[in-house]
Amino acid sequence: MNLSASSIRNYRQCQTLYFLSNILRIAPLVEPEYFRTGTAWHELHETFGDMTNLDTDKLVEKLDDMYSDLPDYFDEAKANYEKKTMLVTYLAWRNYWDVHGDTYKVLESEIPFEIEIPGALVRGKIDALIEDEKGIRYVREYKSTTEKIDIQLKDGMSLEPKFWGQFKMAIQPLLYNWAAKQFGWDIAGVQYDVWRKPTIRPSDIALLDDDGLKIVLDADGNRALTKAGKPRQTADKAAGHIAQKRPMEPEEWADKLTTDILKQPERYFGRKIIYHTHQDFKRLNRSLNNIIKQIEFIDKHDAWDQNTDQCLQYGSCRFCGICFPGLDMTKDELPEGFKQKI
Fold it and tell me: Helices 33-48 and 56-66: crossing angle, nearest 10°?
């Protein structure tokens, strides 16, 4: 049995999710946006994270390559927006930590590990091994989220978002800290380097005439006018007055996102170090033993259960297209819209 932080998370969320993703090893042809952008964020750090001088042209080429294998039916405009999102936020991330005096040195990146324990092979990949200016070393994990990460002020007090509290109990930082110690590394803790995904979105742009006035048409397609005979500048759905708009261009979206990040960078980027105790590692050992025994029993009896409370979390589960219609996955042929993972 192979175990990893992601497979354990899948199992805890839903046994069927674990079965489809980690036993049958199937995946959607097009991953949901949250999954796709999170993977892209990690890949950019893997490729460029320890480069002192970044070649922006190579970054653009990398993004073009990452999005080149999307199916023909995927919305090209959406892909272009996503590429601009990744480009702008990655450049902004580097700039933010440069300006704020990033004192951490990346010693090694993308460190794979395989550790045998009774009943399973624990596998994973540590994003980076870092060292601060005092020579203290940490495991670094890059993460993306849609949750708030910046400190909130309430009644004159600073309140840390609930987002950060979860990592003390989370399996991934604990597992990676444990794995690093198996290598004999002297690790003080795990640093989470977090990017909050944009909450703003590309918006339509009002069409303007030669005088710089908005174009609003009536129900007959003629220019809507005010009682004074001047061109209307606001829409009125009830009266059939529709403002003419066009989709925002990717470059315009890049400018809009850049402006928002520069205005409030703490909403987008944050770091926190998670420390673990001996009791935490005992908890990890207990969890791994329990999970191994549970999976062995469920697999033996083909008793994979479904956690329907998770189906519509984060938009929707990647496998709703299989579970909702009740497709039989014991057949050899893959359902439409899915592929076999390598």
Answer: 140
Could you read off the pLDDT of 160-187 as tens digits, one per residue? Answer: 778 888 888 889 999 999 999 988 889 9
Report the alpha-carbon distance of residue 273 to residue 167 in Å, rounded: 9
User: What does the alpha-carbon distance between residue 172 and residue 9 come to, in Å, rounded to a whole number?
Assistant: 9
d(CA 150, CA 268) in angstroms, rounded, equals 8
Which residue do the tokens 């399996």 mark? 171
DSSP 2: E
DSSP state of 265: G
Measured in degrees and rounded to the nearest 5, phi and psi for residue 185 equal -75, 145
**Helix pair angle (278-300, 171-182), 10° resolution:** 110
Q: Among candidates 52, 142, 59, which has minimal Cα distance to 105?
A: 52
Q: Is the pLDDT of residue 156 over 60?
A: no
Measured distance between the N- and C-terminal CA atoms of the chain, rounded to whole angstroms: 17
Report d(CA 298, CA 217) in Å as an integer.
Answer: 63
Query: Domain map of the chain by residue range?
Result: 205-246
